[in-house]
Structure formats: structure tokens, C-alpha cells
Design goal:
mainly beta; 18-stranded antiparallel beta barrel; 18 strands
Length: 450
């Protein structure tokens, strides 16, 4: 069995026992603690006439929570609730309290059909986020300064194996994000929301697969307040996109993918603006017995809900979660691993009314961790994060450049150790899908299906 690297960092922590044997339900308390030092507490801009510059500080962060898991013969359910408190040694005004609620479900509808559902709600401050797994991070342009946010998302997915070679898929999603400056002198607010769906088909050959995916979404973007009148904008639009994908297994460990497509953005009010842009990407993945690694390059046209801006994004991304040959009694069960995400993106901010680029943001990000798994429910880690964003003169009005370095020690614990069930990750770059575990094996559960 291949154990997902996410299990190493993504542990949780319990207050109520799940019982012995094959109890289908378990309840756990979760706790994560961090001690960190940063050179830019509020991700403040490097050069601004109206906002104070970067301030260094030491801070501690504690994230207690509750995890519930329930597994049936053909379904797995999971619910989480977390609070996150961040306290700074010098800047007491930057102390924050965040909250997150989430629920997910996985269903074996039939021998050929799988379905999943997910809901997430969160609120907090952007510069205080550390909950993400370093090996599964993403990169996007961010607002600067102390920014409070609220997020809501819901997803639904369905996969149907029509024949051994043909797999059909369908998905729905809804997301909404609001931000507001925590600075009393800045009344900037944003709203970003989208609702849409996708359909796809994937035809497998011996070591190759060809896929087609189509999608459409309704998007709302708003910017209010701010120092410049031009910041008060409101957009309603329809996004339509499609792509053809070719995947190829190079050997038992390495696989690749290439996709080519297009995106069309059409305004739904205030004119007849329309933007057509090609999209493309390539990826190379490595899948050993434990962990994974990959590199990808991609051009995409997507709304940035945090900035409430349409963007053309060129990205280079590297993800790594690989074991180190130390401390473990068996190579198949490593205790020490290196995990991280590194990459760079160029985000061109689109003016939908003219089809022209308003400004450019370049973002460099590194999130690297050395992780030690003492037990399956207890991990320690030493972690470094770099966020560096450069804005040209035209983009500086809305999102100034900043640089932030952070070094932290983290510890995560879950009690009791045994999970009744764990939602499986069914995404795979490989054509033969050999990197997927049998459903139910993630937590030693009872469900069994490929």
C-alpha cells in the first residue's frame, strides 16, 4: 500500500475515544502548535507612502480542533472544526483569532460509480495562515497588509467507469470570498464569487490516456473603497473553458501530461466585453513507494477571488514529499521526510471592458519543511516560508509588492490514534492509477474498491 505523504504532516488530535476493534465511528481532539519568527508581520508593502513598512517579530500559534470520522461499507464521512489563535511578542495589535469548519463525504455509489461532497467555511487573517500542507501548496497573488477574510466553498464530484478504458466525470462547485483591510485608515473591501460545473471524459490505452474537459462558471467580482476611485468596480461575467489532455506513463515511477485549451470570458453587464485566451500546461510526476514529487508549468485564465481580479497566470510549480533514509526501522514506513512547494507565477490583471492588461504581479513562493513522524498521530517539523511579490507601477495602487520570510517549529498531535475512516484522494497523474490506494486502506477501514 502506498501511504499518502499528506498523512505525515496532516495529522489531527483527539479528546473522545473511538472504541476498540472495528468501530465505524471515531472522535478525536486535534492540536497543532507553532513557534515562529518573521521579518514582516503583516505582509506590509516594501515601499508605500500611506502604509507602515515591514516589522519583524516572534509569534506563537495554537490551533485546537475536533475531528469526527465515520465509515460505512460504501461511504466515508469526515467533519472538522478548528480555532487558530496567533499571538505576537511585540505587536499585540496584530493578534488574531481564526476559525474553520469543514465536512467531506465519499460514496461508492456502485461498483463503477464514485461520488464526493465537500463544504468548507473559514474566517481569519491572511498573513496568519499556516494550516496548509507544505507539499500540497499552491501559489497565487495576494493582497498586502493586514487583511481579514471570510471564505465559503462547496464541491460535488461524480466519476463513472463506463468501460475499463473509458471514465466519465462531472463536478459542481461554488466559492465566495470577502476581504476587508484591518487597517483603520484603509476601507478597501473585495468580494469574489463563482458558481459552475465541469464535465469530462478520459480514454485509457496501454500507457497513454487522452481526455477532454469542459467547464463553465458565473463569476462576480467587486472592489470597494480604497484610495483611488478606480478601485470601485463591479463585474458580472460568464467564464467558459475547455482543454484536451494527453497523459503518458514513462515507466513504473515516472509519468507526464500535456494539455491545450482555451478560455473565453464574457461580461454579463455594462457592455459587451469579451476576452479569448489560449491555455496550456505540462507536468512531470514521480511516484515512489512512499510520497511523490512533481513539476508543472501552466498558463491559465482564472479569477483571483482574493484580489477580485481576472488574471492571466503563467506559473512554474514544484511539489515534493519524499522520505529520507534515516531513523526508520523499515524503508516502507519512513519517519523522516522532506516536504515542500516552490514556484513562481506572473499574474496579469485583466480589464474585461477593454481586454487589456491593467498591471502585472510577479510572485515567488517557497514553503519547505523537514518532518519527523514520531508516531502516526504525532509529527514534528522545522519549516521555512518565503513570500515575495513584485508589482509594477500600474498594479501598485491595488496590490503593492512585499517580501516575507518566516522560520517556524511546528508540532501536531491527534488522540486517540485510530481513525475510523479517511477520505481517499482519487486524483492521479498516472495512466495505470497505480499510485491510488484501495479505498478504506487509508485508515485501516472496511471499504474496498479501486
Amino acid at each position: 500500500m502506498r501511504r499518502a505523504a499528506a498523512a505525515v504532516v496532516g495529522t489531527s488530535v483527539g479528546l473522545v475515544g473511538a472504541g476498540a476493534g472495528a468501530d465505524p465511528f471515531s472522535a478525536h481532539g486535534t492540536v497543532a502548535g507553532y513557534v515562529a519568527a518573521t521579518d514582516n508581520v503583516l505582509s506590509a508593502p516594501d515601499d508605500s507612502a500611506t502604509v507602515a513598512g515591514p516589522t519583524a517579530d516572534v509569534y506563537t500559534q495554537v490551533r485546537p480542533g475536533l475531528l469526527l470520522a465515520y465509515e460505512q461499507q460504501r461511504a466515508i464521512y469526515e467533519a472538522t472544526a478548528e480555532l487558530e489563535a496567533t499571538a505576537y511578542a511585540s505587536d499585540t495589535g496584530a493578534w488574531t483569532l481564526s476559525a474553520h469548519l469543514g465536512a467531506r463525504a465519499f460514496f461508492l455509489v456502485s461498483p463503477r460509480t464514485e461520488a464526493n461532497l465537500g463544504v468548507d467555511v473559514g474566517t481569519g487573517r491572511l498573513n496568519a495562515l499556516t494550516a496548509r500542507n507544505p507539499a500540497q501548496g499552491t501559489i497565487e497573488a495576494l493582497p498586502t497588509g493586514a487583511v481579514d477574510f471570510r471564505q465559503l466553498s462547496a464541491t460535488q464530484g461524480l466519476s463513472f467507469t463506463a468501460t475499463p478504458e473509458l471514465r466519465l466525470s462531472q463536478g459542481l462547485f461554488a466559492r465566495a470570498t470577502t476581504t476587508a483591510s484591518a487597517d483603520a485608515t484603509d476601507d478597501t473591501e473585495t468580494l469574489g464569487a463563482d458558481v459552475g460545473g465541469t464535465v469530462g471524459a478520459d480514454r485509457t490505452f496501454k500507457v497513454d490516456a487522452v481526455g477532454l474537459q469542459l467547464g463553465a462558471s458565473w463569476v462576480a467580482l467587486e472592489q470597494r473603497g480604497g484610495a483611488m476611485p478606480a478601485a470601485n468596480t463591479r463585474t458580472r461575467q460568464l467564464d467558459v473553458r475547455g482543454a484536451v489532455t494527453w497523459r503518458h506513463d514513462l515507466n513504473a515511477r515516472w509519468s507526464s501530461a500535456v494539455d491545450v485549451g482555451a478560455a473565453v470570458i464574457s461580461t454579463l453587464e455594462g457592455g459587451s466585453g469579451q476576452v479569448f485566451q489560449p491555455t496550456y500546461g505540462a507536468a512531470l510526476g514521480y511516484t515512489p513507494d512512499w510520497g511523490s514529487a512533481g513539476v508543472s508549468i501552466r498558463r491559465s485564465v482564472v479569477p483571483n477571488l482574493l484580489l477580485a481580479q481576472n488574471t492571466i497566470t503563467d506559473a512554474l510549480l514544484v511539489n515534493v514529499a519524499l522520505p529520507l533514509p534515516y531513523l526508520a526501522e523499515r524503508r516502507s514506513e519512513p519517519q523522516l521526510s522532506v516536504q515542500g512547494t516552490a514556484g513562481a507565477i506572473r499574474s496579469r490583471l485583466l480589464d474585461l471592458s477593454t481586454g487589456e492588461v491593467d498591471g502585472v504581479l510577479d510572485t515567488l513562493s517557497v514553503d519547505a519543511a523537514l518532518v519527523y513522524e514520531m508516531r502516526r498521530n504525532l509529527t514534528l517539523g522545522l519549516r521555512y516560508q518565503l513570500s515575495w511579490q513584485l508589482a509594477d507601477d500600474s498594479a501598485a495602487m491595488a496590490s503593492l509588492g512585499f517580501r516575507r520570510n518566516t522560520v517556524m517549529f511546528e508540532a501536531r498531535y491527534r488522540w486517540p490514534e485510530r481513525l475510523a475512516g479517511e477520505i481517499p484522494d482519487r486524483s492521479s497523474l498516472r495512466v495505470d492509477r497505480s499510485d491510488l490506494t484501495v479505498v478504506g486502506d487509508e485508515a485501516g477501514g472496511t471499504s474496498r474498491a479501486r
